[in-house]
């Protein structure tokens, strides 16, 4: 999920949908894996160049062709990496499998990894011009011409990332870290695991995988089966995941990789619903308005005034509803 106010944030960023349970709090970002950072950033820049906003007004799934384009790209990459059971459904759901490398007779729970193809429509340009900056502290200027910036006074969390390289947008669009970041993480994990597994098969001995994911170097850990699902149209009411064929995603447990702080694990969240309220007024000339004119804006004001102002995302935490 995303909101316009947070969506121009760099990755990593706080998730705007208040999670109700945090198994792990944020930890300091790791800065000892520049090769991994480069690989993730390269993927992020490539995937975010595909325009993949969802469109709440459309009735199809996917609601936009860009999501299908991104689904096709990811499926092609997964096939090239050597993933099994790679499939793109009519609704642009991508599923794939990283086969188990456990020895005969051993078993482990099948783990699922999910993320979503769409980015939120925040009323900005759908075209993302992401770039990498060195965060030296203070405000992060996204666009010197328009003055668009992530201000430390409004987002004090950016101080935690001083000294880091960050991915940011140019202030004309959302960054789309939600959930291009999730896609990048899962794809990079798949690339490294599959390369390591292939190294093991090729030598017929302990699999080898280097820190650069080329299959050279350290021994690969045996792992159970891992299933991947990328779904469209998450931002507009989870429409895409409802079309996921669970026969193609037979998992024991699954994790969604979405926007969050580095090291943060969220174990539960809330349900959300949208209601549309239409207020029709009655037009009248001011001379004959008394007892006749109904101003819908003033009626809306009365309606909003009856809602509890404390039951809002900014005033609640944990399991408090709003
Ligand atoms: Zn998301």
Description:
With 322 residues, the chain is an alpha+beta fold. 21% of the residues lie in helices and 16% in strands. The chain is built from four helices and 13 strands. The protein has a five-stranded mixed beta sheet with strand order 2-3-11-4-12, covered by helices on one side. A two-stranded antiparallel ribbon has the order 1-13. It binds zinc ion (ZN). Zinc ion is lined by residues 1, 116, 178-179, 234, 258-259.
Please describe the topology of this protein.
Elements: E1 21-24, H1 34-48, H2 65-81, E2 84-88, E3 94-98, E4 111-116, E5 131-134, E6 140-143, E7 148-150, E8 165-168, H3 177-203, E9 208-209, E10 218-219, E11 226-231, E12 253-256, E13 265-268, H4 296-305
Parallel strand pairs: 4-11, 4-12
Antiparallel strand pairs: 1-13, 2-3, 3-11, 5-8, 6-7, 9-10
Helix pairs in contact: 1-3
Bound molecules: zinc ion.
Q: What attributes characterize this protein structure?
A:
single chain; 322 residues; alpha+beta; Aminopeptidase; five-stranded mixed β-sheet; globular; binds zinc ion
Gap from first CA to last CA: 16 Å
Unreliable sequence segments: 1-18, 204-217
The strand line-up of the biggest sheet is 2-3-11-4-12
Number of strand elements:
13
CA-based gyration radius? 23 Å
* C-alpha geometry: globular
Backbone structural class:
alpha+beta
Short description:
21% of the residues lie in helices and 16% in strands. By secondary structure, it is α+β, with helices and mostly antiparallel strands.
